[in-house]
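Hi R.,

Here are the chain sequences for the assembly we discussed:
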Amino acid sequence: MVNYRFTFSYDGTRYHGWESKTNADTVEGRIEAVLTRMVDAKVDIHGAGRTDAGVHARAMVANGRLETDKTPEEIKDYLNRYLPADICALDVAVAGDRFHARLNATGKVYEYTLYVGAEKPVFDRNYVWCVPQGSALDVDVMKKAASYLVGKHDFRSFCGNNKMKKSTVRTIYDVDIVKEGDYVHMRFHGNGFLQNMVRILTGTLVDVGYGNMSAEHIPEIIAGMDRQLAGPTAPPHGLCLMKVEYD
Amino acid sequence: MVNYRFTFSYDGTRYHGWESKTNADTVEGRIEAVLTRMVDAKVDIHGAGRTDAGVHARAMVANGRLETDKTPEEIKDYLNRYLPADICALDVAVAGDRFHARLNATGKVYEYTLYVGAEKPVFDRNYVWCVPQGSALDVDVMKKAASYLVGKHDFRSFCGNNKMKKSTVRTIYDVDIVKEGDYVHMRFHGNGFLQNMVRILTGTLVDVGYGNMSAEHIPEIIAGMDRQLAGPTAPPHGLCLMKVEYD
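And here is the predicted structure of the full complex:
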């Protein structure tokens, strides 16, 4: 059995998230089904993270063991022939036997896109959050608020799983917010993110952008260790996993 | 009854084209249903053209008569509240009583987008034609071929309706072909286009790009007045109506 490293892009719109589930159409489930068919034996893969239903990826990394005569390039071609049009195998490579896509990941980049234009974005509707009265958003104050997130913090207040037993300490290296025309791109780079964390960070920064809370309130939210203090969870479809980093 | 001029953008993916049809979900049908509900009387609108199933528009113009106390801005807001997320009313204005969106149109711009990259474009899959072996396409020879299309010609060879009784003479002002990364944008500007004409022009230019026919063959196809001489009809989803012009 050889351990392979896979990189996938996908449009998450019509899936119940990344992770395989019985009786639900998921991205991982689709990929495992094609690989299982290819080698005629059950294949399990492990993603670098779990994206929620409706969340997209430009470069999700996964690993999985299988036995085949095919070259990595042939495996990639097989995947792209049998996967649906909204999932693409970007790369397949032989990995070291100990490589694990989730456990070995040292960083991730997520991008959340807001749409602040006046007209409904018919072509981007599945990839952006159309915030109401988007022109009222103060992007500069959002940048200020984001600067307080950078660093090593306990992000329990931004965790969607309130029964989380493991550590909720994470390091955010950078939050880059750029307004381009009718779009606000918010890029989060960190060593890892908790469940719903990027969506809650986004909902909170948007609250700040509307003036519902001040930028200086962010350190208090972090210190409070209480999900109730942060803003709402932004909808999934504006979110995209851009990159997974390894040493 | 006041004659209004409407401008719409739409993602045509899930519709059976623009034109209202009994028992089929169409863009015009959706818009007429909302307007009919708004004024509580049957409203008919007239589009500047008929886009095929799967074809998109960034600025389809239509006109229709109705009686209402609402301002044009209020009509627009009503439309955007009740139309689905893939149809947007961009503009509503009072038009002259004799304005007819189709009969008064003096020009149209369509854009056809080819995808020539190696990887499946999961996010653009409904808006581009993924041509096989796209990297083999010779865009310069396609530009050469396109130059023969410009001018006033009988485009019968490029008409999808072989029972067309009316004139098949049209004037193409310009065909602009630009390669940007993995995309080839083909912009057709003319005084009007026959049924499937842009799709057949595209299929023919792609044939030339692959070297299946020479650029110099285009004048012979035009002169032959026979649909069989031209290339295949390109798929609908790469096509978008960009603009309708009026004097």
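Helices of chain A lie at 27-39, 72-82, 139-147, 197-209, 218-224. DSSP finds five helices and ten strands in chain A.

Let me know if anything looks off.

Best,
T.
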